[in-house]
């Protein structure tokens, strides 16, 4: 099996690339970070340190690496069996042109083998969005061929992988938690489902995507934002603060009640899922900065993402939402000089006012009373 993984970052090396390598795939990482590409291409191996329960060190061997905007990448796409990505939601549109050129080359070479592309990003049906970008970059007369031969497979991916510490002997090494879950949509594959241990398939993916994004990521983001406000540096310190934990658990429960209504999850099992996630946030062996988890607040405050979509769900089913509102107000309070989206948010709050910014960023044009509640909580937070 020939595999290309776009994005040799934390989740790329620490989870998806590792599973592909374990499945004996001929694995090439494609990235824009040239020093990272050079080091991976030269060294061809790295270590995954699994910390927590059943701690162990696992070796990933025989990988190669190329620049993702290269002729090499196009040539390899033409021959690949599976392509995965973990580049960040905002980067999918940027890799689409290379993917399109690779598919055109594949078509020209007469390769009719089925190929599957799986985006492993924290977003709802990211691969379907990638597909639209790829099709836009291809001549319409090839769209039918793509539909016939290329599976665009949505997935949900869960494993907490913070960046390695600067003190690491080898910058390629990654530290990951024990828990991992990668679930793919079985209905979207072309050809046989690839045999990759650790990749589970379901025909009910939406339930799993929303369960993960609107429980773990909702709670994670709120931990980060409230954590920063309270002066905590890491997710562990923040979640061990009882006042923060109450709001985080409350928000995950509010979001969970929506998921239970929407997908029929068992309430007892869902409560256990939330407890397990809180324990994962506490992992003493992971150093996860609130700034990593809070990154790109405008994305996290957008209408389909982990804060606003659950809030909309509570309105739909007439359920409580006060903890989610606290989390949203905390997200608006997030400040980071290293994060262009945090900078843009500050500019918009200052130039356009809080009410207008919340309305636009969160897509809440039809909910002025709800916007007013968020603004009140936000203003109260600024006075503390
Ligand atoms: N780290 C986690 O805990 C985790 C868990 C689940 C899902 N995710 C998701 O995985 C994705 C990546 O997150 P991460 O934490 O690994 O980030 P990261 O920053 O560690 O890795 C992203 C990698 O993508 C590369 N990249 C950027 N632009 C590119 C391009 N045009 N072509 C190829 N590579 C490019 C970067 O150089 C970087 O190496 C995100 O969507 C994130 O939400 C992360
Ligand atoms: O990657 P983001 O920015 O969408 O979210 C930050 C974290 O919540 C996220 O990376 C988690 O660590 C991950 O989703 C765990 O599976």
Automatic annotation (TrEMBL):
Organism (species): Kluyvera ascorbata
**Recorded E.C. number(s)?**
1.1.1.17
Annotated binding of NAD(+), by residue: 3-14
The record's family statement is: Belongs to the mannitol dehydrogenase family.
- UniProt-listed PANTHER family: ALTRONATE OXIDOREDUCTASE-RELATED, MANNITOL-1-PHOSPHATE 5-DEHYDROGENASE
Q: Which GO terms describe its molecular function?
A: mannitol-1-phosphate 5-dehydrogenase activity
Task: Report any one BP term from Gene Ontology.
Answer: mannitol catabolic process
Residue ranges of domain Mannitol dehydrogenase C-terminal in the record: 204-381
Q: Which protein, by its recorded name, is this?
A: Mannitol-1-phosphate 5-dehydrogenase
Q: What does it catalyze?
A: D-mannitol 1-phosphate + NAD(+) = beta-D-fructose 6-phosphate + NADH + H(+)
| Gene Ontology CC entries for this record | cytosol
Q: Where is the Mannitol dehydrogenase N-terminal domain?
A: 1-197
Q: Write down the superkingdom of origin.
A: Bacteria
Keyword annotations for this protein, in alphabetical order, are: NAD, Oxidoreductase
